[in-house]
Design goal:
The complex is a heterodimer of chains A (162) and B (583).
Chain A lengths: L3 H10 L8 H12 L4 H10 L4 H10 L11 E6 L2 H5 L2 H12 L5 E2 L5 E6 L11 E3 L2 E3 L4 H21 L1
Parallel strand pairs in A: 1-3
Antiparallel strand pairs in A: 1-4, 2-3, 4-5
Chain B lengths: L4 H21 L4 E5 L2 H6 L1 H14 L5 E5 L11 E4 L5 E4 L7 H10 L8 E5 L21 H4 L17 H6 L4 H9 L2 H11 L11 H9 L7 E6 L8 H8 L1 H15 L3 E7 L3 H16 L15 E7 L8 H8 L23 E5 H13 L1 H5 L2 E2 L2 E2 L1 E7 L6 E6 L4 H8 L9 E6 L5 E4 L9 H6 L8 E6 L4 H15 L5 H18 L7 H15 L3 H4 L3 H9 L1 H9 L23
Parallel strand pairs in B: 1-2, 6-7, 6-9, 7-8, 12-16
Antiparallel strand pairs in B: 1-3, 3-4, 4-5, 10-11, 12-13, 14-15, 14-16
The chains are: A alpha+beta (162), B alpha/beta (583).
Chain lengths: 162, 583
């Protein structure tokens, strides 16, 4: 696999749309690496003739940008109003419990992260969660917890196999 | 404008090609699976995979299309099968395990699996001699369908959003061709004016007035922007239009560019919504390949291009001036006005911004005329409303209904009322900055002014129902938590006011509220309204004020009696307040 710098470079330079900005470059890096390393901030600043501060200003504004490599499996639970009314709070609680987390964040072993999302966009299927960005609707506290437990068991088996 | 004959032939060629493709396709069975966000969340990907596998295993030749949202989201994953010349047979809540049986019986054997089917729709142009399939109900009479009048959603769920020829075969791009051939930009603008169309993004500002601001600006470099930064919980219709029929929007954007004299359009979507992004990008590219975008569109002297721009997660990026900041690659924070976008907008150039739904009406307005559109609707609210129904309703989904129909009918008839025989407590409309309507006040017509006077707004069309088990204070707290989380932080009355409101609501939900808390929230709300640059802060008190208006007793019970009448607040609960923006 290419080194980090090559991958950042390629992501930034392969933007085909006419309007290339700090934000579009950061999004391109996120698509490639799923996080924004320090090197990317510097590279984007250079590429867009901006300062590192300008780039940090943008990167720190949008909560989709993260600055650490993502967990292996990413679980998101929606807490928009539709999901709230259909039981999202129970889903959040049971997902956190199954993941062994107190609040949103990542497990220490990096196997799984839980984040809350303000709206995943499938309100008619509330409550909604997503696993690695694939939506799953009409979940319950029990079904969601079972999904997380299965993901963790699967990841543990993968580690064991290696 | 007099134009050479070959131009007309150009569109006619496209249309002829589209029709011949449609006729050729009609000879094979057609399977359509809804794969918009609602379908995806219900497991549509597995349905598509299982169908393809079953077709291959059984050696059956058929066309499988991933279409958008048909509207009946409650029945997703939704599959419909149309045998050549026959009706469309719909299977709702389709289980991938049934794919082999359905392919064997329906496609290979010609016998629909009645016990799995939801109903049928007669084929286009069916006459009196059409024989309905036995044992199935007519979905045209489905409660969610009978109230509808589909304009922007006319193709949703019917055509393959990745195939421009299917759009052309339904008359797509004819309005553009007609406008370029027969109308001056002024004529086109006049049609929009006659239609009475008003912005569907929330503010309901007359579209033609907005377009005139831009058209009247003599600058050569002008932009039109289409806003699909749809972050409202409870609304998904913008994304659904892009997923179901992106060419309607693309055509609308081009027509807007023609009427206002702009040369470039941007369609602005949130990063991560891959379905809408991919379908929109594909549509733009196909339109370019067929000469419907780019230099000298359809041989005319009008040139126009469209770029799809992405934003990061930010609700305020849906505000028009923050949206321009985001396209310019900056933090999505609103600008001071004046100058207004029509004078100084994107990259300092004159700019017009419209919502997806607004622009998606434009092709039909151009082809059928502004007066036709104005004949639908109620007083100054012309046309239709595209509603997203969610919450504990029997039928959740997306509907396009004429403005002027009664909200009560939408709820009790179309959406089938509240599930499990429970009673409706309130409706939350217009997104988190909208308001709530008490159950006794839903007997009102859908109309921008009527809803606004009732303390709710139609906004982007989200209608969330809540049943009797809902605690109003808890729901308000959730809505304010959203607004607090999404405040961009530029104006301190909004940034601090939202936090303040949330803190007070948390306290009331903890049953530790003080009698003066209500006045405290009211004065905070007044300051937010007076001191914020954009609607986020100006309207941010709406969820609280409308809840107080319809349910004062419930707040009093929490504060004075330290009781939550529904028991919701007595239970331990998770609080989204902790989920602040983290690095």
């Amino acid at each position: 696999m290419d080194g980090l710098e090559q991958r950042i470079n390629r992501a930034v330079r392969s933007q085909t749309q006419p309007t290339v900005t700090i934000l579009s470059s950061l999004l391109a890096v996120e698509d490639e690496l799923h996080y924004i390393p320090r090197e990317a901030v510097e590279r984007v600043a250079e590429f867009t003739s901006a300062t590192v501060n300008d780039v940090w200003a943008v990167a720190s504004f949008y909560p989709n940008f993260r600055f650490q490599p993502p967990a292996t499996r990413q679980v998101e639970v929606c807490w928009g109003a539709s999901c709230h009314l259909m039981g999202a709070m129970a889903v959040v609680e049971s997902v956190l419990e199954a993941a062994g987390l107190e609040e949103e964040g990542e497990r220490p072993d990096g196997s799984l992260s839980v984040r809350l999302n303000t709206c995943l966009g499938a309100c008619s299927q509330a409550p909604v969660m997503s696993i690695d960005h694939h939506l799953e609707g009409r979940v319950t506290g029990e079904s969601a917890a079972l999904r997380v437990t299965n993901l963790l068991n699967h990841e543990a088996a993968e580690v064991h196999a290696r | 404008m007099k134009l050479p004959r070959y131009m007309l032939a150009n569109y006619e060629q496209l249309e002829a090609e589209a029709l011949s493709r449609r006729n050729a396709d009609a000879e094979r069975p057609w399977l359509r699976v809804g794969t918009a966000l609602c379908g995806q969340a219900a497991g549509a990907d597995a349905v598509v995979a299982s169908l393809r596998e079953a077709l291959e295993d059984q050696g059956v030749d058929a066309r499988v299309s991933e279409v958008g949202c048909f509207g009946l989201c409650y029945a997703e994953p939704l599959l419909d099968i149309q045998m050549p010349g026959g009706p469309r047979i719909f299977y709702g809540n389709f289980d991938p395990d049934n794919a082999a049986e359905v392919v064997r019986s329906h496609l290979a054997g010609g016998q629909p699996v009645v016990e799995l089917a939801l109903g049928y729709l007669a084929p286009d142009g069916a006459g009196d001699d059409f024989e309905p399939p036995a044992g199935l109900r007519d979905l045209a009479l489905h409660p969610m369908r009978v109230w509808e009048n589909r304009i922007a959603l006319r193709n949703a769920g019917n055509i393959d959003p990745f195939d421009i020829y299917q759009y052309i075969a339904t008359g797509g791009y004819r309005a553009l061709n007609r406008a370029l051939l027969e109308m001056t930009p002024d004529d086109a603008l006049q049609q929009v004016n006659d239609s009475g169309l008003r912005g569907r993004g929330g503010a309901a500002f007359p579209t033609a007035t907005k377009w005139r601001f831009l058209a009247g600006n003599p600058s050569r470099d002008k932009y039109v922007l289409c806003n699909c930064e749809e972050g409202d919980p409870g609304a998904f219709n913008d994304k659904a239009i892009l997923e179901s029929d992106p060419h309607t929007l693309v055509e609308g954007v081009i027509l807007c560019g023609y009427a206002t004299g702009a040369r470039k359009g941007y369609i602005f979507i949130r990063h991560g919504h891959d379905g809408p992004i991919d379908r929109c990008r594909a549509a733009v590219q196909q339109a370019q390949e067929l000469g419907l975008l780019g230099e000298n569109i359809l041989g005319s002297d009008f040139s126009f291009e469209i770029e799809v721009a992405l934003t990061g997660d930010s609700y305020v990026a849906g505000e028009e001036s923050a949206l321009m900041e985001a396209i310019e690659g900056k933090r999505a924070m609103p600008r001071f006005r004046p100058p207004f976008p029509a004078q100084v907008g994107l990259f300092g150039r004159p700019t017009n911004i419209n919502n997806v739904k607004t622009l998606s009406y434009v092709p039909e307005i151009m082809s059928k005329g502004g007066e036709w559109f104005a004949s639908i609707g109620h007083e100054r609210s012309t046309g239709t409303a595209i509603l997203c129904l969610s919450g504990p309703l029997n039928y959740t989904g997306m509907m396009e209904v004429p403005l002027g129909i009664n909200l009560k009918d939408v709820l009790n008839e179309a959406a089938g009322g509240i599930r499990d025989g429970k009673r409706l407590k309130l409706l939350q409309t217009g997104g988190p900055l909208g308001g709530v309507l008490g159950a006794d006040n839903v007997d009102i017509v859908l109309d921008f002014e009527v809803l606004r006077n009732a303390g709710a707004i139609l906004g982007s069309g989200g209608v969330i129902a809540a049943d009797e088990d809902t605690c109003v204070v808890d729901l308000t707290r959730s809505l304010v938590a959203f607004c607090q989380y999404e405040s961009c932080g530029k104006c301190f009355p909004c940034r601090m006011g939202m936090s303040h409101l949330l803190e007070v609501l948390e306290r009331i939900c903890d049953l530790k509220g003080e009698p003066e808390d209500l006045d405290l929230m009211r004065s905070t709300g007044e300051n937010m309204q007076a001191g914020s640059l954009c609607g986020h802060g100006q309207l941010g008190f709406n969820p609280v004020s409308s809840a107080l208006r319809y349910f004062p007793g419930e707040f009093e019970a929490h504060i004075l009696e330290h009781q939550c009448p529904t028991g919701v607040c007595q239970r331990p609960r998770f609080s989204p307040v902790r989920s602040r923006r983290q690095g």
